[in-house]
Specification:
single chain; alpha/beta; Arc Repressor Mutant, subunit A; Rossmann fold; 2 domains; seven-stranded mixed beta sheet; 15% strand; globular; binds adenosine-5'-triphosphate
Length: 216
């Protein structure tokens, strides 16, 4: 968010992404969609949907619903995906190769413009048609390519030092797959994908699932 713009919480931004999935899967573009239809598809309350959409300045008309295309455009703009983003990736191991094979990024407007690694045997190799460059080219490549985002798939021991280099090179946001808490300056945004933590969330929920059941 800009200094003067509305500041969305991460949880709200996550719900907007879910609403957008629902809107793009909506069968008929001509047909309106109601907040309760979005709510049912996503699994949140009707009131929550209306609050989130009202916070975007998008008030549906009671009894009429939202135009799905128009609403999708408003959400895309709030999420920042109404325009393309250039992305670099550092650490071209197995996880990175799997990510690079996934075609969905490009479809969403994320273009991977450069790959980096520090292993001498990997430099010069092409993955999905993109050459792997040495870290010494990080700064110039990021600036020349106008990359704003970085995907970090290095081992956890290397993550902080590589992140520091990315910050120095002018990157504005990092998607971190290393299972560490990175320290970044406040002008650089961080999202961490930690699969072990997500599995722990799942085991917590499974373990306590019975707690929520009404006494029989
Ligand atoms: P591989 O066996 O091909 O290296 P991997 O997935 O087991 O794959 P990891 O040890 O997870 O490899 O490391 C991921 C990638 O990060 C590797 O390609 C490794 O060379 C690279 N890497 C490790 N340290 C750094 C670093 N400081 N800077 C850039 N890349 C690094």
């Amino acid at each position: 968010a800009t200094a003067e713009g509305p500041r969305l919480s991460r949880a709200a931004a996550h719900r907007l992404s879910l609403y957008l999935r629902c809107l793009t899967a909506w069968p008929s573009e001509a047909e309106k969609i109601s907040s309760s239809q979005i709510a049912a598809a996503v699994g949140v309350s009707d009131a929550q949907v209306r609050r989130d959409l009202a916070a975007l300045g998008h008030l549906g008309q009671r009894g009429i619903g939202y135009d799905p295309r128009e609403l999708a455009a408003v959400i895309r703009e709030a999420l920042g995906i109404h325009r393309p983003w250039r992305v670099v990736l550092v650490g071209v191991g197995n996880l990175a190769r799997a990510l690079l094979r996934y075609q969905g990024f490009r479809a969403q407007g994320f273009e991977i413009v450069a790959l980096f690694d520090n292993h001498p045997n990997k430099i010069g190799e092409c993955v999905e048609g993109i050459p792997i460059r040495p870290l010494s080219e990080l700064q110039t490549t990021i600036q020349q390519e106008g990359a704003e985002l970085a995907i970090l798939t290095v081992p956890k021991e290397a993550a902080q030092s590589v992140a520091d280099c990315l910050v120095k090179a002018g990157i504005r946001g990092i998607l971190n797959f290393a299972p560490v808490v990175l320290r970044l300056p406040p002008h650089v945004q961080l999202v961490t994908v930690d699969l072990a933590i997500q599995l722990e969330q799942l085991t917590f929920l499974v373990q306590h699932a019975d707690d929520a059941l009404p006494p029989s």
